[in-house]
Every structure is written in C-alpha cells, then in structure tokens.
Amino acid sequence: MFEIIEHTADIGLRIEAETAEEFFADAGRGFASLLVENPETVGSREAVHIDIQADDLASLLHDWLSELLFVYSTRGLVLVQFDVKLDGARLKAIAYGELFNPIKHQRYQDIKAVTYHTLKVERLAGLWRGQVIIDI
Amino acid sequence: MAHIPIEKLSETTWRIPRDARPGMLVDGIVFADEKIMAALAKDEALEQVANVACLPGIRKASLAMPDIHWGYGFCIGGVCATDPAEGGVVSPGGVGYDINCGVRLLRTDLAHGDVKPHMTALMETLFATIPAGVGQGGRYHFSDAEMRRILENGPRALPGGALGEHDLEVTESGGCIEGADASVVSERAFARGRGQCGTLGAGNHFLEVQVVDQVINPAAAEALGLYKGQVCVMIHSGSRGFGHQVCEDALHELRGFQERFGYKLPDLQLACAPINSPEGERYLGSMRAAANFAWCNRQLLMAQAREAFEKVFGQSWSRLGLEMIYDVAHNIAKFERHKVEGGERELLVHRKGATRAFPAGHPEIPEIYREIGQPVLIPGDMGRASWVLIGSQGAMEQSFGTTCHGAGRALSRHAAMKHANSSEVLRDLVERGIVARSHTRKGLCEEQPAAYKDVDDVVNVVHEANLSRKVARMRPIGVIKG
What we know:
heterodimer; A: 136 residues; alpha+beta; five-stranded antiparallel beta sheet; globular; B: eight-stranded mixed beta sheet; 31% helix
C-alpha cells in the first residue's frame, strides 16, 4: 500500500508492503497516481522491461521511480502494473501501461524529479517501509 | 524539529550564529520581518540555512531571502557563495532541478483601455498559441546538432525570426553563460528536452498579461519604459525536462560524495563536489547548457506571445511596442567578483530561488540601464501583483548582489484545494477582473492567490533591507497556466 504525503511546495509517497517485490510495485502504483488522477482508467496495453541496479535499497527506490518518470516524459507511457523481481539491490521488472490519452486520463502533477530528500527504505518487523519526496 | 537559535539584528535582518550547529563554517543570515520569521517556525527552512553554512569553501554567510521556504538541501530563497581558491564546492542542490527557472518581462505601447475590449480574444489566442501543461510538447523540434548549438550559445543560435534586435542585450548574461559543454550532457537529458523548448510547463509557471498599477520610482520606471496604466506581459518558466535531467544526472554522479571528498555534511541532498574537480566541472558545463536552454525556452515563449498579440491587434509586435524590459534567472550558479574579507574574490554564487540584483554602474548591467541599476522581476500570485525592482548597492554589501525571487508558497497544494475549489477560484479571479485559462482546473486551484504569501510583504523586506528598490507594481488581468 502507499499513501501520498504533503509538503508545502511538493508531494511525497509513503509505502508499506510485506515483500520487497510488493514494495516496489506499490511505489510504482503510487507514482502513477501522481501522474494521473484516475490511474484505474489506464490499461495494460504496452510492456516495458526495466533492469536497474543501485548500491542500496533507498537509491534503488529513487532510481526505480526516476525510470518510470523517464518513460513517461519521453514516451508518454503511464505505467500502472508491475511484475517486479528483486535480487539484492538489482531490480528487474516488466511494467505495463498505456499512452497518456487526454480524453480518457486526467493529468495530475507535473513531476520534475524524484529527490533524495528524507529518502529511506527500511525493514521493520517483517514489513518493508519507505518514503520518497517528489519535486513538482 | 530541533530549535535553531536566531537573533534579530534589525527589523529586516536575522542571524543564526555560527556556533548554532556543529560544522557551520559561517553565520546564517535571513532577511525577513517579524511576520515572515514567525511563519518559519513551522518548517525546516532555518535548519537548511544552517546546513548550507557547512559547505566547504563558503564565504561570509549562508543567506536566505524573505521568500524563504523549505526546499531540498538548500531552502528556497537560499544564496551561498563558495570560493574556488579555498576548496569551495559546487552543489547542484544550490541551483535546483529547474535550472535557470526565471522571469521575463515585456512592455507594450498599449494602455489597459486598449486591451480591455479584446481580453477574452487575447487570452484565448495566447492559450491556443503557447503550449502549456504537463508534458505538452511544442512546435519547435531541434536536431541533436541544433540542440548542441542552442546549449552552447543560447538564444543567439535560434533560427531567424525568434529573436528581436535588442532582446539579448536585455537578457541576464546576454542569454548565454560561457563554458556550457553539450558534450557532458546525457542522452537522457536530450531525450527529455527535445520538443520542450518553447513550452511553458505546469506548476507555478505562467504567462500573464498585467497592468502597471503603481509607479514608486518614476525616474527608474521611465528609464525602463514603464508607466501607470500600461499593459505588460510576464513569462515565468525554466529549462523544462532538460534541466531536471541535468540536475538528476549530477546528483547521481555525486552519490557517495561524502566518502569520496572527505566531507561531513548533515544532509545528502547537499551533494557537492570541489569546483575544481572533474565532477564539479562536468556539472558546471551541463548546468550552463541547461541555463542556455532555459533562455531559449523563454525566448521562444516570448516569440509565440508576440505572435498572438499580432493576431489579435492586427499589427506587428514592434509596432505594438512589445519590447523586452529584462530577463532574470532565479535558479543558477555563476562566477562573480565580490568583496569578502581579504579583498575582492571570484566566487561561485549559488542562487536557489533568488535573483541577481546588481546596483547602478555594475559592468554586467546592460548599458541602457547602467545608470539606474539592474532590473529585478518578482512575480507574485495570479490574483494580486508582481513587481519590478532595481538592484542596489546594499545587495553587493550584504547578499552577493542578490534579492528575493517571488512570493513563496504559504499553503501546500492539498491545503489550497481545501481552501477553495476551482469554481470559487475562477469566480474570485473574475471578480478581480482577471481572465484565466488553464489546462486543468486543478492546476488553477493549486495556484490560487491564497496559496501564496503576499508578494508585497516580501518586496517590502528587500526594499527596506536595501537589497533592491521598488520601481513599479503590476496587477494581472490575464493568466495562462499549464
């Protein structure tokens, strides 16, 4: 699960899940809900393969969402469904979504970047928890 | 939030002493009045002023302007100057993601009465002509070779027709910071920037048609070609996805910077590298490329605005007097000469939501304004006002030639939505005589006047502190938002 957190000039996501795979998939869904107001209307017509590696899990969360932003801002693809596999701090995923369509989808935020501000990922009592602030 | 000790030095100046936090190399100085200072107790902006005071090679003080609010690493409204000869660093966070976000002001020969009957048509035409909104592409598409020329040369590399005869003369740095290096810019930045030059974007970016409603300094206003009742056009935008990616790439490259350079800084978002290091030089080369891209963006936005005025009024833009008054950057790092202990030094001045404000006589001011001082453009919110100021000597003495950049947000976007819905916001704007067009009702709602501090309060502080002096105030009559 994810929730949106408020910041005076910006916005963030808090994510909590039982497994690492769910954690990153939830982060991806949370991110989609910042791109479009009605992510439930976005279909899974196209698939994108993502393969990224980082030095630690917090950086990996940052890079994962940055990758989704890059796909959106260069190809117009809103990705909403995720098959994630995690091996240490290497993430392989197939992400599904469709081209943004102004008739069907409602834009939400103009996202500039995923920041490192208060970025964290931790495992506590069998739960994966994390938070990330997005510059809008 | 930990309490930061702060002492009042004057009605407009406050000091965070250097011993307030371990690691601070200089004091923090905040320009604010009592009201602004009281509001700051709620967030971590003062903590960030103290954190920036820990940056290696920082000179004199870590500064914050009265539009200060919480940012990433640096607060918004933050200014710091680092000395390359003293191991000074460059910090991408001291510039921000939207490199060379800035403001451009155009004058016209039209009076409010001339445009009033045409306001709806004018705003519809501007709205149809100027690409705005999230991810909205534009009509200009540049090849990689063209992009490289733009990145290294700024608007002078733009195709004919987009550039008026006097535009570059009245653009900060002539629209081009030397030393831009397109070869260090990533393919990702090219990919994000391609097709976005000449587009407004969303968020707080805007194009406004404004009317001069107060002239405070008639001599300076006359020198700028401004008079009461005159129609002006203000454009606020930056380097779009291109600049965001340049910043992102630099922060990525600086991962592990503390261990690499032996720094001990309190916040990872203060990632930095010595100015004289391969990482520092690469960032500066790409940051300058993004700055030049941003000047091209505002140039093309202005070209499209001029076109819209031509369509509506049936005359050429030059006959309508749509000449540029000035263009300022408010997210940038530049080498400048400043007096510090030990004489005049070349320092790297980071301005993160802060505007250069050089006084009369400074060699970097265009000749036509050299006697009055550099024009400073301060956008407010879409309902109240924006300001033109001029730089003053006090800025050279106190703030590395810098003043504020805007009103600063007071409410989060969510709180703004709760404060008034889009129909209420539109009704309020109509009552104020403002024609507003936005691609999303939500965008309009989030940017409503109540979401911002009153720009008049912010401008009063910089005027009283002698960081810059008031010239004229404009109120909006037409607004375009993404």
